[in-house]
Amino acid sequence: MSTKSSARWLDADEERAWRAYLRMVVAVQAGTAADLAEAGLSEPDYEVLSTLSERPGHTGTLHAQADKMGWSRSRLSRHATRMEARGLLRREPDPADGRGCLLVLTDRGLEVLDSAAPAHLASVRRHFVDRLTPEDLAAVERISARLTGHDLMAG
User: Fold this and answer.
1) How far apart are CA 50 and CA 38, in angstroms?
2) Which domain of life is it from (predicted)?
């Protein structure tokens, strides 16, 4: 039995929806990434900085941050090394996990985030929010929850 004969092919509506989704993700990410690059940040940089800024003491574990981003700990560790070299964060030993570390937002990292945030928010609005109706935004939330298993309103 060949793979081709056992494959459950997409019908025309499914194919159009899949390709529309891919185009949407690429277009929105390309727009917001280009705008962040003007501030000298990548999307992962911004996510790490913004998440740490919301945590008590501007500190979080490498493990929790990697989980939030959907990255492996080793991938985030390499990225954190580059951010640390730029003075955006520092690492400290994790007293709760001898093998882990804490990521701590530096004053410079907070300044960079504070400087980039208004332009990033404007970019998100320009490339995504302002192009959709409130009903569209609610539909995106419902679809996201179904596809990811995460209720965004629950945290």
Assistant:
1) 17
2) Bacteria
Mean pLDDT value of segment 91-99? 89
Q: Give one DSSP letter per residue of 103-148, joined into a string.
A: EEE-HHHHHHHHHHHHHHHHHHHHHTGGGS-HHHHHHHHHHHHHHH
> Is 58 a member of any domain?
yes
pLDDT for the residue numbered 124: 97
Distance CA(47)–CA(68), nearest Å, equals 9
- Residue 49 is part of a domain; what is its CATH number? 1.10.10.10
**Nearest C-alpha neighbor of 36 from the set 51, 46, 23:** 46
CB atoms within 10 A of CB 48: 27
Tokens of 63: 């493990």
pTM for this predicted structure: 0.82
- Please give the single-letter amino acid code of residue 128: F
148 found inside a domain? no
Which residue range forms the structural domain that includes residue 102?
A: 42-124
Comparison of pLDDT for 13 and 148, the residue scoring more: 13
